[in-house]
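Holo prediction — pyridoxal-5'-phosphate.
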Amino acid sequence: MTATPSDKPDIFETRESAVRSYCRSWPATFARSQGAKQWDEDGNEYLDFFSGAGALNYGHNNPAVMGPLVEYLQSGAVLHSMDMKTPAKREFLQTFQDLILKPRGLDYSVMFPGPTGTNTVEAALKLARKVTGRQHMLSFTNAFHGMTLGSLSVTGNSMKREGAGIPLTNSSKIPYDDYFDGEMPDFLWLEKVLADSGSGVDKPAAVIVETVQGEGGLRAARAEWLRALSELCKKHDILLIVDDVQAGCGRTGSFFSFEEAGIEPDIVCLSKSISGSGLPMALTLFRPELDVWEPGEHNGTFRGNNPAFVTATAAIKTFWADNEFQNQLADTIAELHQRLDSIVEKAEGASIRGRGLLAGLHFEDTEVAEKVAAYAFENGLLLETSGPEDEVIKIMPALTIDSRDLQAGLDIIEAGVLKFAPAAAKAALA
Ligand SMILES: Cc1ncc(COP(=O)(O)O)c(C=O)c1O
């Protein structure tokens, strides 16, 4: 049994449920964090290319959000408010409308479901069913939408699905972009079954999609594929839900990950970095015509997390009031992808996955990614794996990371890749 410095049994191992997972890959006890770094309680430093699975897009303890948060906490203002009105919530809604929705020409009603990603997905599925009167959902191979039953029913991963313990019904999986490695025309099956009343596939209420599959292996959908999906949904009167829980809030280079494709989903799910601070918060956005909820028909105790409204407002005002942050982000994305290009040239069977700062390296040898991630941790870098067989390393630094930290983390990744993946023939000859 691992002992703490004081030689007491490790309470995490003796008391915490076996379901814990990240602490098994990264057995440090993290005590402090700032920007793109964390320190364990022994003072060891770690570069963080995990960013709270996308909940810390602006880095740890960003002063831009921490100042207003501390001020709010000390002011005697309301912390918990269900869905009652508070000045903090008013300020958030106004800021979100003025700086996020209006400049993008988007008109969405804003719903506060419970504070997690799976809460917004559940609300989206429920609303789509209520609006259309249909039960069936379509989702994609390798999709990940969360751990509650509705979200699991549209998730791909078999291990997670089995955890439900009951049949996960009312949904079908359809091939994500490039599932057949370019050998099948896009949406061949879907077009056919939707047009065929004898296909036996119930007309779905909605299609739910991630523009980049954060947990399922970092496949990124092409813009034209997303546009074709959106067109297909319109043609058949099916709602399009974009789950932007992980890819949203700047991760792919724009506030919403679907901006590049120029599509306007009917429903959008946001969580993770919407609070800008790591505090729990989620939004479900939908076209106002779809707002058919009865008051209180969907509710939850933690929809009014005022400290999260405060940090969300501060983050939006700091990073999204003009184009400066987005331009810097474009440079960081270019720097990351240039370096990834050079790494894959040196390693056999390695290829780049993802988009923006939601990127990854896929290895043909499915054991390489986990070895690289373990090597990264030994060398002071938090790096997660993704994909059904953990065959992809997932590179997800803070969007605010500076070039020095980015390159330092990539140096560790490159060293790990060169250690565990076979050298590319070209590189081996050189
Ligand atoms: C795309 C997507 N949707 C939903 C979720 C679920 O979010 P949460 O873990 O906050 O419930 C995740 C979590 O990783 C996600 O990546």
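READOUT: The pocket of pyridoxal-5'-phosphate is lined by residues 53, 116-118, 121, 144-146, 210, 214-215, 243, 245-246, 271 (CB under 6 Å).
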